Amino acid sequence: MAKAKVAGGFQLSGKLGNTLVFVPYGDEVIVRSAPEKRKRDSWSPKQQEHRMRFRALSFFYKAYRESVVKPIWNLSATVKYTGYNLFVQANMPAFGRYGALTDPDLLHFSTGPVPLPQELRVERSADDPAVVRISWSTDQLSRQAQTNDCLMGIYYSRDGSQPFEIGATRGQGEALLPLKEWQITRQFHIHLFFRRDDRSAYSPDRCFLV
Fold first, then answer.
1. Under 8 Å CB-to-CB from 35, ≥6 apart: which residues?
2. Rounded to an integer, what distance in angstroms lies between the CA atom of residue 29 and that of residue 14?
């Protein structure tokens, strides 16, 4: 639909038919060809794969926007890259053809300048099958790696999940994680990372299959 404006001078704007678009620009009106709507049947297999992969990434982002992207990834945003850009770029390798999640190990829920400790390990307790023991080296404490950094964890969920405090600080060197009933008899992925005590910075995360 095109509109004609008479007051103050004749001016035409909008779309005429399926071929022309009128765009006001100062005292002039620019005429453009209307963009053609592309039929889905005309997309190549590669284009279809790309669209489905991006759709899956968008769904993944929306599921973790409030719990992960805003409080964690936005802290690492730059003039060039937003938290959204960084989050999607980091997680793209985890999604394969047609948007399928191909490798949970490649997912990332945290990023930032806080360093992960060396020799971070996760193993099931030999004494109690309902407990996982997490341990790490405390040799390289520094201004960036503080003793009161909080150990955090998160389980991947298709609909989104919240990061949670495991109840240990970097200076302790170890933590015990009670398992949920279904985790006792099954393997599962957990992503671990550290958070500054005042929530001002985070570390990258690391995924473990337990």
1. none
2. 10
Contact call for residues 87 and 61 (beta carbons, < 8 A): yes
Rounded Cα distance between 103 and 19, Å, is 46
Residue 92 DSSP code? G
> Per-residue pLDDT tens for 81-104?
999 999 999 999 998 877 788 888
C-alpha angle with apex 159: 58 to 56, nearest 5 degrees?
25
The span from the CA of 49 to the CA of 99, in Å, is 7
* Runs of H (alpha helix) within 65-113: 83-91
User: Which residues, including other chains, have CB under 8 Å from residue 198's CB and lie 6 or more apart?
Assistant: none
- Cα 94 to its chain centre, rounded Å, is 11
Q: pTM score, two decimals?
A: 0.74
Rounded CA gap, 180 and 158, in Å? 18
DSSP H helix total and E strand total for the chain: 3, 11
